[in-house]
Amino acid sequence: MRIRTLTLIAAMATTLPAIAMADALDDAIEARQGYYQVVKHNAGLLFGMAKGAVDYDAATATAHAENLKTLAMMNTGSMWPAGSDKAAKPGKTRALPVIWETFPAILEKQTAFVTASTTLAENAGGGLDALRANIGALGASCKGCHDTYRAKDF
Ligand code: HEC
Question: Measured in angstroms, how far is the CA atom of residue 48 from the centroid of ligand 1?
């Protein structure tokens, strides 16, 4: 019994590095998709307020816009390892290889997201009209990146 367990452990130890590599790429993909779900949650509430689907509340609007600003400024570099694009990981990610081929061009799109969320954080609490006047730039910053760097399908 004891020998069998040891054999199993030895077998696991030799296969571990390969598994760890694959897991690291999958983990990074999951992490960035989770990150964008949090982005979507915060942006969605603000879009809802701007459309009148959600009641406007200055403090809530400010809090969510501040969250977006924090998310936009977060260093997500470790979530984008080489080899985690859609061509290498079909079915798992929509991140197009062009992200890595033209890097650091995508950072311009991230800067647009930082700028739009910073302006929104400063204005979202100033009334529904102020929120509406600044939400368009936020939506444009999402679309601006998705159009070039995100595939329609997984
Ligand atoms: C700098 C580029 C960039 C910006 C800015 C950006 N996104 Fe994305 N987004 C991506 C990429 C690339 C993916 C695909 C990630 C993947 O599948 O690995 C993605 C994926 C997503 C997803 C899907 C996540 C999932 O679970 O598969 C949502 C939702 C999303 N983004 C919402 C937004 C919203 C809302 C904004 C703006 C407030 C935004 N994104 C701004 C690049 C960006």
Answer: 18
CA of 68, closest atom in ligand 1: 38
Nearest CA to ligand 1 atom 28: 36
The residue whose C-alpha atom lies closest to atom 7 belonging to ligand 1 is 142
Strand partners, 150: 95
| Tokens 């992200």, residue located | 99
- For 19-31, how does the pLDDT look when each residue is reduced to its tens digit (9 = 90+)? 667 799 999 999 9
Phi/psi for 55 (5° steps) reads -60, 135
**Phi, psi at 89, each rounded to 5°:** -130, 60
For 2-149, which CATH superfamily applies? Cytochrome c/b562 (1.20.120.10)
